[in-house]
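haha ok so turns out i had the wrong file open the whole time. this is the CORRECT one, sorry everyone. sequence first:
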Amino acid sequence: MTVGKKASIVSFENDDVFLKLMEMGLVPGEEIHVEQIAPLGDPLSISVAGYHLSLRLNEASMIWVEDVL
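then structure:
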């Protein structure tokens, strides 16, 4: 995803990070918005459920999303 894009969380790639991400508010059906991406691509800042969250690229890559129009 690129800065400014919105997407809806569909699922997670594996169960190892599922609980950790859900505790941060990343649940299936929730809409996320990419706010910023660090100059070297890691980490990235997203907004979800009314707050900002920074994710490492390896964590973000385990989230399956679909674009929101």
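Residues 6-67 form a domain with the SH3 type barrels. fold (CATH 2.30.30.90).
again sry for the mixup
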